[in-house]
Amino acid sequence: MKKLYACLIILLGLSGTLKAQITNADITHQFNFTNDNFDFGKIPYGKPAQYTLTITNIGKDTATLDDVRPSCGCTTPQFERGKKFAPGESVKVVLGFNGNTLGPFYKTAGIFLNNYKLSKQVSFKGETFQQPASDSGKMKQTGTVIHQ
C-alpha cells in the first residue's frame, strides 16, 4: 500500500512539472526574430562580416536574453547577457563571421531566453570568393563588411 501511495505522489509531482514547462513551440508566440536566417551573399575570403539579429518581445511578460552560443569559433556574438526587455521592446545581437571559409558556408548560433527555458537556432549563410591579386600600383580596400 505504501508503494502505491509513493507511486501516486511521484506521478502527480511529475504531471505538475510537465505542465509548468514551456516548450520551444511557444517561442513564436513570445518573440519575433528578424534576420534569423540571414544570407550574406558573396563576400571576399578572409574579410570579416557581421549582421544584426533583432529579437522583439511580442509576449505579455518581460523577457531575458540569457546567452548566444555559436556553433564554431569562426562566429562571434556581441550581445548584452542577462538583458531584460519588456513587451514591445527589442534586443539586438550582432553575429560576426571571420570569413575564413573558402566557398559556400552555413553557420548557426543558439539563442537562449527566459532562464534557458526557450531557445532558437538562428543561421546565416553565404559564399566567400578569392579576390584577384591586386596590381602593385593600386591601393587595396580593407575593412569589415557590415550588413544590417
UniProtKB/TrEMBL annotation:
Do the record's keywords include Ribosomal protein?
no
Q: Which UniProt keywords apply?
A: Signal
Protein's UniProt keywords contain Chaperone: no
Which regions span the lipid bilayer? none
Q: Which InterPro entries match?
A: DUF1573, Ig-like_fold
**Pfam families the record matches:** DUF1573
Please indicate which superkingdom the organism of origin belongs to: Bacteria
Point out the signal peptide segment.
1-20
Location of region: Disordered: 129-148
Designated name of the protein: Uncharacterized protein DUF1573
